[in-house]
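Look over this entry.
=====
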Amino acid sequence: MELRALRYFVAVAEELHFGRAAARLHMSQPPLSRAIKQLEISLGVILLHRSLPGVSLTPAGKVLLNEARNLLDQADRVRVRVAAEAGPTAITIGLLGDGTDLGVVRLADAYRRQHPGIEVRIRATGLTDPTCGLRAGLVDIALTRAPLDETGLTVHELRADPVGAVLRTDDPLACRTRLEPAELAGRRWFRFPEGTDRQWWSYWSGGEPREGPVVRAVQECRQAVLWNATVGITPLGHDMPEGLTAVPLADMAPSRVVAVWNEDDTNPLIPSFVRIATATHRRST
């Protein structure tokens, strides 16, 4: 068995869907299907029950999933230890926003357990550069949010968060359990400076031109709402400070938490970091 085939199988087993697994692996579906079929032939067992809605694991598939995860984790540890002797012993991570996401806390714990000899350097950034300095070469990998301009980047989704409108608690709409984006038309929004990534700017502006105070950091967004009664979009699940609340938005695409790195980067520490981040976020959802 090749490690690549095991990585393919784990992706399909976790997604329970060939299409989603292929997107996660950044490949087309036919070669993924062929690789899984070849793995079944080489093992002499059926690993997946296939149906129109998706796939399910056979008893043999469940056993292989657990064993494959262990083997891949061990392979990553070997790669990092060898790399530490021959090359980089540190990784620089860009963190978007205020860094209070509980997923980051769990990831830090898991990474330290598996790679205690690797020095982790953190570069916390504001909201004007969703790559957290990646394009400028300031970080090796970024934990950020999509959508963003993906040119020259590899983007790996970790989680998708629903979003809501952040409002003052005395706002007439604050008592609602759900809002339509159209109900916020005509309101002043906090907005990002000119020159900000257009896809990023468009998403957090609700896809519409906006007027309102310019912000560059999470705290500035919240203060703009508190002091000016502007509105904006925020991922749900974060504690709001006193005086503010978040109301879920209907028909709004979720905010995707992603790991992003330069597509031509051969740093051997990146694949292991992405695997640990994926496992950490999977177990927390």
About this structure: Residues 188 and 212 are 5 Å apart (CA to CA). Residues 59-86 form the longest helix (28 residues).
